Every structure is written in C-alpha cells, then in structure tokens.
Amino acid sequence: MNGVALERVFRAASGRIIAALAARFRDLARAEDAFSESCLRAVRTWPAAGVPDDPAAWLYRVAERVVLDSIRRDRKQQPVTEEASLDPSPEELLLNDACILPDERLRLIFICCHPAVATEARAALTLKLVCGLSVTEIARAFLLQEATLAQRLVRAKRKIADAGVPFELPSPEAWPERLDAVLSTLEIAYARAHEDAAGSGAHAGFAAEVLHLTKILTHLIPDDAAVAALAAQVRYAEARRPARLDAEGFLVPLSAQDPALWRRDLIDDANRLLADAIRIAPSEPRTLQAQLQQVWCARHSLADPAPWLEVLRVYDRLLLTRDDPIVRINRAVAVAEIEGPDAALVELSRLDLPGLEEFLPYHAVRADLLRRAGSLTEAATAYARALQLDPPAAERRWLERKLAELPRSEN
Q: Among 128, 175, 298, 368, which residue has the least CB neighbours within 10 Å?
C-alpha cells in the first residue's frame, strides 16, 4: 500500500476516531496525539503485515492503548479501571460501520464548531481534526501565517478542554450559531479537492463527500439561503470537472473549457438550489458566489461568448457584502478581460496581507496578468513562486508550460 493510499485511510478515519477518543476520555489534545501515534505505528507495520480488514478499528484500538498508557504514566502507574457495560460505548458505535449514519462526518463538524470556540477558529479547528488538513494547508486557505493559525488552534483546543464541551450532536436549536463555521469548513474542504483538476491527490475524496453532505444539509435546513447556495456552488463546480483536463493532462482554464462536456444533471440541480437561495436571500454572499458559477454554466458551447461583463457585475455586488482578498483576486481576472491587465494589476497591488505570499492562486493570477502586460521578468518570478507552493500535478504542468512559453527577455 503506497503513501497516498495510507494517507487516504488516515484522513477518512481521523474525524470519527478522534471524536470517539475524546468522547471517552474527555481530552481532545490527548485524543489527537494518540491518533497521530496510531498512524505512525500503522506506517511502520502495515506495509509488511498488510492493511487490516477494518483499518479504522485497528487505528482506534492502538490509539486507545496509547491513551490508556499515557493516563497510567500520568497517574504514576495507578491502574485504570473501566466500568463494564452490556451496552455499546459511544466510541464503539462510532467505529461500527453498520451503525454509522451517512452524515457522521457532518455530525462531527457540528460538534467541533461549538460556540465555546472563538468564531475565527471554529472552521480551522474542524478542518484540522475532522478533515485532517495540515496547519500549512489551513493557514493558506485562510490567508494566515502558520504561527498565527497554530496559536488559534492551541487556544481552541484548550477552550474545549476548559469548557468541558461534550462530543455529542447538538439539538437543532443549536445549529444556527454553528452553521456559518460548518459551511466554511465544507467550502474549504471542497476547495482543496477542486484545486486538483485531475482528482488524484490526497484530498480528492472531499469532492464527493461535500456533495453528499451539502445535500443532507439542504434537507436538514431547507429554508437557509447560504446552505442552498453552497450546495449549488459545489454542484456547478463538479459539473465542470469532465472538461478541466485536456488530452495531455494539462489544466484547462474555465473560459477555455468545452461546455458540451459539462454534466447537465448537476447543473440542473444547482439551478434549482440557486433559485431557492435567491428567493430566500438574494444578497447573501454565498448566493452571489453561486450566481458567479451559474453565469459560466449557462454556456452550452465554446461558440457562446465568455460572460466576463456579467461576471464582473456580480463580483461588484459581492464586494458590498463580502470584501475579502480572495474575492478581490478573482475579480481581478474579470477586470483584466474588461479593462485590461494593467487595470487588474492595480487592483492586485492594493491587496496587503502577509498570507498572500503563501497563496498560490494569487501568484498564478499575478503571473498571468504580468505576462499579458508585457512585464516578462516579473511574470517569470511570479510563475516560479506559484510553482514553489506545490500545486497539484495538472496545475503544475500548466504553470510550467506558461513559464516555458515566456520569451527570454523583455520586449
């Protein structure tokens, strides 16, 4: 079993195992450390001994022993007694695939988005514990420096410990105060899958999972515009997946994708969801973001003109309710098509955030704009920086080709 396959097993199991350990031992930090140790032991033993029939149960049992050993050491070798029970424990239910509900991951996301955790840390904590993203990946998603993000995670876990947060599904009355963090988590998890056009990376499984979880959310919370809009966004994006790679495995930019290859069934689903979102809250930021996707998915062939003017109009509306660097970067792409690359570069130059230095899309967009503006040396530097940020395979090949196509000297 290769490294990528092992990583997928660990990511798939991490959320419910950490939650199960925390539910039993009431110690999130110890649960997380124990799961990490069980993964290390799996890496050492599975390649030779073979992957167990139930990898999640194996990882849990090893992590359980790690926690018990740790508790015994903390108590100076005092024995740990466990109450016998004929009923299955919470962790046994979590680990029994026959009992796991289809929305188990969603349950864990709601749990980790507890209001005891600072608002700005909820989605980050969930992405770390439930989705298994690294601190580096999360910091880049939030345009934060790693040290800042790491401090937030430490404080969040300490708050959960101090507040005695139960690892139980909250009642529906408690969902609204957690919903934005839940949606942000799903949004970023899907973005990690979507950025890999080939769908072959460690996060590829997030795409199908977020499709499923957003469908569940639309049934659980049917009258929320943000829920419907996020579900629509994911479906529009997944509908375009068949056209995102060319025959040679290179990334195909959205404006050059053949709409005939897009999945119309997903687009139809997205249109229905977006109609609900518009009816409920037409100015909700996620409603406008879904409208951006709809504008593109209205094309039926490459003969249809690229809708750059309408895209720019929607971005201008979005800025009134969600003015953040990511929106500004994406808007700059549309500005370049309407007003030219120089105007778009001016827009980018106004962004001032330390986290942008680690944000690959920023460097990729800036490189393309500099190339189009004739600033070839600066464009080469920007392409090189984007390549340093470890893009997925198809994106890497596309960036490498763009860099290689640059003339060797400025005109």
A: 298
Please give the distance of CA 207 from its chain centroid, rounded to a whole number. Answer: 9
* Element housing 228 (H / E): helix 225-239
pLDDT tens digits along 38-71: 999 999 998 888 888 888 889 989 999 999 988 8
Contact 108, 16 (CB under 8 A): yes
Q: What is the CATH T-level fold of the domain 324-411, as seen in this structure?
A: 1.25.40
More confident: 115 or 203: 115
Query: Is 166 in a helix, a strand, or coil?
Result: coil
The gap between the terminal CA atoms of the chain, to the nearest Å, is 51
In tens, the pLDDT along 244-294 reads: 999 998 999 999 999 999 999 999 999 999 999 999 999 999 999 999 999
The DSSP-derived string for 272-310 is: HHHHHHHHH-TT-HHHHHHHHHHHHHT--STTSPP-HHH
CA neighbours closer than 13 Å in the CB half-sphere of residue 127: 31
Q: How many residues does the chain have?
A: 411
Distance CA 360, CA 382 (A): 10
The residues, ordered by sequence, that sit 6+ positions from 68 with a Cβ below 8 Å of its Cβ are 80
51 residue type, one letter: V
Angstrom distance (rounded) from CA 101 to CA 169: 12
* pTM above threshold 0.85: no
In the DSSP assignment, the letter for residue 171 is P
CB-based contacts of 227: which residues, under 8 Å, 6+ apart? 179, 183, 214, 217, 218, 221
Domain ranges, ordered by start, for the chain:
1-100, 324-411
